[in-house]
Amino acid sequence: MGRLLEQGKISSSQMSKMLFLVIVASTVISVPSLTGKYAQNDLWLSPILASLIGFLTVFIVFSLNRLYPQQTVIQYSPDIIGKVPGKIFGLLLLFFYLHITGLIVRNYAEFIMGNFLPQTPISIVIFTMIAVCVYGVKAGIETIGRTAQVFFFFFLFPLILMPFLLRDMHLDFVFPMFEHGLLPALKGAIIPQAYFSEMFLMSFLLPYVTDPEKGMRAGMLATLGVAVVLTGVNIFILLVFGRQSSDYLYPVMAAFRYISIADFIENLDSVVMTVWILGMYVKISVFYYATVLGTSQWLELSDYRPIVIPIGMLIAAISFWSMPNINAPVISFPFYSPLMQTICPLLLLGVAYLRKKGKRQSQAQTAAASGSVHSEKQEG
Amino acid sequence: MNRNARKWWRAHKQRVQQQAVPSHTPLHKELAENEQQLRALYDNCSDVVFRSFRIGGSTRALVVYIDGLTNTEELERNVLSVLMKTKMPKDSAIGKLLDNVVSVSQTNELATFEDCLESVANGFPTLLIDQQECALSFGLAKWEKRPVEEPMAEGVVRGPREGFTESIQVNMALIRRIIKTPALKMEQMQIGGYTKTKVVLAYIDGIVDMDLVTEARARLNRIDIDGVLESGYIEELIEDHPASPFPQILSTERPDVTCGNLLEGRIAIIVDGTPFVMIAPATLFSLLQSSEDYYQRSIVSSAIRWLRFLFTGISFLLPSLYVALITFHQEMVPTSLLISMAASREAVPFPALVEALLMEVTFEALREAGVRLPKQIGAAISIVGALVIGQASVQAGLVSAPMVIVVAITGIASFMIPHYIAGLAIRLLRIPMMFLAGSLGLLGIMLGIIVTVIHLSTIRSLGVPYLTPIGPMKFAEWKDTLVRAPWWMMNARPHLTGDYQKIRQGANQKPGPEKGGDPA
Amino acid sequence: MKWVQIVAMSVLACILFALEWPRLSRLPKRDKAAFITLLFVAWVLSMLDLPNLPGPTTFINALFRPLGQYLE
């Protein structure tokens, strides 16, 4: 049952870098405006509140993994809630991932089109990215982990450039704090928390981590890192744009456009974009990988590589499906994502615990009946 | 088709083996029969000399050697003349002859025809004596060798100037002269059905991970090839990813580089007939290191390493960045620069991509021609080349001046990579990058970079990931990758695979005035 | 335009099939079936005028509409 389709291994630090890039890549450029819409000048608080969901998700995944080491959620959910419901849940989850990957790809393509290549057909942008990801996913998790490690350093590079904006920052934009209580900040956290629940991808990675006992720490660190970066970016955007943050579709890009070093080095938004493409690649390929791996485990195939290309085509198809343009945002995402990735797994964990407990009790009873006392210790 | 070919190959191999009739056939007692057999084998080999004589005027004997591979003077003085004068010992033990008469330091007793053939082919004169079932070979090989010279492709300002030569004995000696411990092992094997090339697998016992040696040995033993003319043959047959443009095995002409790598737990493969010694496992960063990094002051070396990284990037990306900026992203170029670039491009009839390709290909052609040219006309070609691509093409309005600058910088940058082959890989990848830049702009470049990084992170060299120490991360090794830490900081060896001897030197060796000499 | 798309996607599907099949032929039947089915589904989808058809996104949006309105 616990057959491993993947031969590769990653380290827990590679996993945490993958997860960090997965969440930061898509949030960093648009979240300030999305949270700013609700939280106004309290938008710096929202990522911190949202990260709670991330920590919770990491805890859930890690606990599930402790109960079923060497297995992904697709493999252990039939064990927990029975064969048929488990399979149905797996299918829903896979469908969710397929769908979300398509949306991410679409988001990426829209961003590229809007900012850099307005004349290129969107299908070209989508297909090239999927082709690159096919190469990465086929190479396996080891390769994705290593590329994440390499790109992680590049991804942090634009942060060094932030101080050049100091003279455009206004500290008074932060005030008044909590004008309308905590509610706006909480509302602003609704969108980022959906991204934080993507930590659930850990469930597909943990079976391949060489040091799974450090998985909890790695996941928590990744969440913390994301929270810190997002809070930092939000503060920085707030200080530069104030309450107008939400007027920009991509406020980070707009802010970097302000930077001018010695009147010569300008248009640093292109640096942000190039680096962001690297992060997006990691994000898409991790989602893509989870989809492919999960599907092949669900179908009980002998290898996941044969279905990489067909699933890539499906992702491309979904990225077009019923979206003539991106201006109709996916309003369901902030609820759909935590439902599938945090709430359902939480229920799974609850059932798993109850079952274990029931088992233990029945065992303890039989043990007591037969007069031996040390069964509890063994179970613990 | 494939099966037929395999069948043919098997038959062919059998034929070859039949030709070499007496493989493992023991020598006869009768000299006449041995001679006949050998003469039949060396039929039509005009370079093989058969010299019959009598030991002490009675016992018949025969010396076989190859003209030009043997030191005939020594042979005459220490073997022939002595043997002719002496008397064959009565008990006819060949050992006694060796002990008492022949004054040659390296001798060997041979029992089979195959051994005889091998020793003759290696330049050792072989002595066959009547009524003896074994032959004697004398270590009197001598042929024309290139002297030890400064390596052509890997120059240094500070550092030893010795380079390997074509002779494997000399190369082994050069290594042994630096690493004197008996722990330095040199396993010899023969590869090549016809060339019977000597290949030596060198490593330091106790430092190297023995699994690495076993793996390398197994890969070498797997080779079944007609001939080995250069270490490149072997490299292609033992590497992990044959389809990659990146070299997964380092080749060097320098004994000091080889020894440095042996001391870090790598293995070296020395092949007879070439001055290029292969070192494995190699990583991407080891290709960007020069031996001189370790001889210069550490701060300077670190700075030079950074310069090298920068220019490796430039050599990979500059032309495609230029194409992308000109074609897609003019708004990113500072205005004043854009104006001057636009002015110089005004008369150019080609799109930027075509212009860049034209210039790059011309440059590569010049470089290749420069390597192959007879030395006498090299100067002429470089003048013509410089004039053609530099001056005339700009004046004729075929190419813009900035493009010439870009190509020139790229050209210089690609020669900053200390290992020529690694430079070739990057140069090769530059062309597809330019196409990507010409079709998708910066996005194309980024996709190209991603694909390159994916490729690099799938490669392994003898089990060591190619991007070590960045992916997978080994923070402890950064001090000898991103910078070159001073020697007193590098107390641990880099970790390659499996078990290894981690500590390489005593701790706490940082010098300083307070340490001084002896406190007394 | 429509025809170009259909032809292009069919050619792409054929090329991908031809590229993958040599490696697939060694694998069990189940893998082959999964590959062919998924590729076929993707090919059929690519024939349609997807951007203007209701799809999973529409469905999910409808499902979560009440919650979404709270956000507005």
UniProtKB/TrEMBL annotation, chain A:
It is found in: Membrane. Keywords: Germination, Membrane, Transmembrane, Transmembrane helix, Transport. One of its GO terms (cellular component) is membrane. The chain crosses the membrane at residues 45-68, 88-109, 121-141, 148-166, 186-209, 221-241, 273-292, 304-323, 335-354. The keyword Cell inner membrane does not apply. GO terms for biological process: spore germination. InterPro entries: Spore_GerAB. It is a multi-pass membrane protein. Pfam families: Spore_permease. The keyword NAD does not apply. Belongs to the amino acid-polyamine-organocation (APC) superfamily. Spore germination protein (SGP) (TC 2.A.3.9) family. This is Spore gernimation protein. It comes from Brevibacillus gelatini.
UniProtKB/TrEMBL annotation, chain B:
The keyword Membrane applies. It comes from the Bacteria. Keywords: Membrane, Transmembrane, Transmembrane helix. GO terms for biological process: spore germination. GO terms for cellular component: membrane. The keyword Membrane applies. It holds the Pfam family GerA. The chain crosses the membrane at residues 306-328, 378-398, 404-426, 433-456. Belongs to the GerABKA family. This is Spore germination protein. It comes from Brevibacillus gelatini. The lineage of its organism: Bacteria, Bacillati, Bacillota, Bacilli, Bacillales.
Automatic annotation (TrEMBL), chain C:
It comes from the Bacteria. The chain crosses the membrane at residues 6-21, 33-50. Keywords: Membrane, Transmembrane, Transmembrane helix. This is Uncharacterized protein. It comes from Brevibacillus gelatini.
